[in-house]
Design goal:
This protein is an alpha+beta fold and 217 residues long. The protein has 8 helices and 8 strands, in the order βαββαββαβββααααα. α5 packs across α7 and α6 packs across α7.
Length: 217
């Protein structure tokens, strides 16, 4: 498994991409203690390391209407078993790192294809209230394959593979993460990048990313 794409690290208070950490509330129920996450626009589940769902926010309930995610026997279930396996393994890593590091919550981010067309980011964080549980946040389709990306690809004559690579670059991934996400070698990614640099008339990765972000904004 590519450790560059999936790494455990401490949560920083300024990291707004990670869901806000609920504070323990004396004498209140678990539901009340998790109130800060209940109304986030992103789906958030409170789970144990077997993917058993303890609680969820409103967005998570809506996500269960999609054909790639469901709850079966109280457990979070995916249409592809390999996704469930990767998330279970990530749960174990986060919990193990959390125990080693003391009271600092740990996080791990996975990029998984939830069906043939969509790529989503799953952030697993050790729950600061109950250390044996985890919060899992799901961010939406990261392919950026809408009209803006299609216009961008057409303007520069990008191939389908090159479009996927530049989409993941805009999503914040580096070459080794892109290789992991697309299940291709790093050498293939570098080949696509060289072609991208030529078509975009830029010198390097950062120049290509700056151009793409500016034109897609």
């Amino acid at each position: 498994m590519n450790t560059y794409a999936n790494t455990a690290r401490p949560i920083k208070p300024t990291e707004h991409s990670i869901l806000p950490m609920p504070m323990p509330v004396q004498g209140d129920s678990q539901h009340t203690a998790l109130e800060p996450i209940l109304h986030l626009s992103m789906p958030v589940f409170l789970i144990d390391n077997s993917l058993r769902v303890i609680d969820m926010n409103t967005a998570a309930k809506h996500a269960l209407n999609d054909n790639w995610l469901s709850i079966d026997g109280a457990k979070l279930t995916f249409n592809e078993e390999k996704n469930a396996l990767q998330i279970r393994m990530a749960c174990q890593r986060v919990l193990c790192h959390g125990k080693d590091a003391g009271n600092t919550p740990k996080s791990e981010r996975l990029y998984l294809h939830t069906n043939d067309h969509e790529l989503r980011a799953f952030t697993l964080t050790q729950c600061p209230i109950k250390s044996e549980l985890l919060l899992i946040t799901i961010e939406g389709d990261l392919h950026h394959d809408g009209q803006a990306m299609q216009r961008f690809a057409n303007a520069f004559g990008l191939s389908k593979c090159e479009t996927r690579v530049i989409s993941l670059m805009v999503s914040g991934q580096k070459p080794k993460q892109i290789a992991y996400t697309l299940n291709i070698s790093i050498h293939t990614v570098r080949s696509h990048l060289r072609s991208l640099y030529s078509k975009l008339r830029v010198r390097d990765f950062n120049d290509a990313l700056i151009l793409a972000v500016r034109l897609l904004s």
